[in-house]
Model the fold of this input.
Amino acid sequence: MNGNYKTYVKKDINDDKFLTLVGVLGSAVNGVSRFFWSLFFLKTGYKTVVLSIVGISIIVFSSLRFTVQTKGAYLFLIMLVNLGVGGIQVSTPSLVQYMFGQRMGENCYGIFWCTVSVANFIQFFFVS
Done:
């Protein structure tokens, strides 16, 4: 959803300025949230962070189709998506290094990001 937020609503919201604003604010939320996610990660650990992100995702994806005609609600949900992405990007490197060790963790994390790119391409075709 983070990469295809414009494509998803192109029939319902035909306002490119607004959708650009959605992307900018979403990216800002992603960047700012990483600081708070890292503090939360240090205090609680990976499992709590991931469960929080799953909770956010359930809220977003269960209500997304009902908000595509309301600009403010759609903006809010895309900001929540970016909030979750920020949490995953903060916590995943630590988990991968913990699971596989520092040397193998670096390689596994590189593979992880390659799969994220492939998933974005697949999602683009589903949304289109």
User: Anything to note?
Assistant: The mean pLDDT is 85. Residues 71-127 form the longest helix (57 residues). The chain has four helices and no strands.
